[in-house]
Request: fold
Amino acid sequence: MRLIKRVLDKVTYNNVGRITTLPFFLGAFLVAIGVLIYLTWLALLGGAMTIASLVLSVWKWRCPHCGSRLDRTWEVPKYCSHCGKELDKK
Ligand SMILES: [Zn+2]
Reply:
């Protein structure tokens, strides 16, 4: 569990978009395949992946200064729309 926490701590607003995009689409793809070929476990695995990446992106997509949710954009915004502090893009 400590390893999971360490990995999760590395996920920030800077990289959460990049980290969650692939598992999100891969998961959705696996659901489609699983449904098509009647492989329940594959569909469930895909669903779990999609939901996990959604949860992670909602959870981590917030301002490091004030903790407010950031706007839903593909790019990291330059400034927080709530507290106005600069967000650094890496
Ligand atoms: Zn803020």
User: Anything to note?
Assistant: The helical segments are 2-10, 16-36, 40-60.
